[in-house]
Amino acid sequence: MTHDTPQPDAGTRERKPGRPRSAPKQHNGLSTREEILRTASQLFGEQGYAKTTTRQIAESVGIKQSTMYYHFADKRAILASLLSSTVTPALECAEWLREQDLEPVVRLCALMAFDLETLLRDRHNLHVVYHLPELEEDDFASTRSAQTALRDVYREFGHAALTSLHPVQEATELTEDLDLLFALVEASVSQRHWGGEENRAQYARSALRGSLRLLGVAGHVIPNVVVRAEEALTDYRAAVGRHPTPRRSRSGTG
Known about the structure:
Elements: H1 32-47, H2 54-61, H3 65-71, H4 75-84, H5 88-98, H6 104-121, H7 126-129, H8 141-165, H9 168-175, H10 179-186, H11 197-215, H12 222-240
Helix pairs in contact: 1-2, 1-4, 5-6, 5-8, 6-8, 6-11, 6-12, 8-9
């Protein structure tokens, strides 16, 4: 009596040699898009942008390439998203803050606190990505455009804060130094790759307090300004559906 050799079910067919299985998801709690960005930034840093393929990224995340292409058109789109990931959130926050009934100095402080938190958290190790030798000027074009827009917002918020704190002539003179605040915050990304959370939290607190002093905010008023700025950010996160970062990984600007 002969028996037919059972054929594997379509859903359980053995994979062809050389076709690796998808790995389990690596970062619980992250969306697929965030996992792709985190994994890509890690691979870019470890082996360079040119040597990293979309197949490697997909396999490392544990998804099919078709799934990755649902989120990003190609590797360059992933890079562009990585490069803009610290600027776009700050611009979105600034737009919301602009519409709120806040004292100018509180509005500026809230923007700086949000920007510091975003940069110091640096989920994607951008201090490494920014220095990849293969990157060309065009890779940074959209990011630099966004950074220019954010700098202009700092100038706008900063000028309003100075005008509310000082006589017109003094405020005008101090306006010339407003870009220093933006530079101080943007430079914080380099602090992310050394020291522990407390080091980064201390840097954020110092940068925020120092910036307020440069604006001419009285020392005894600074703590209250910071508290009200954090209250505004709590409202912002609630308005856009973003949960506050867990305390252990917060920048600690309050």
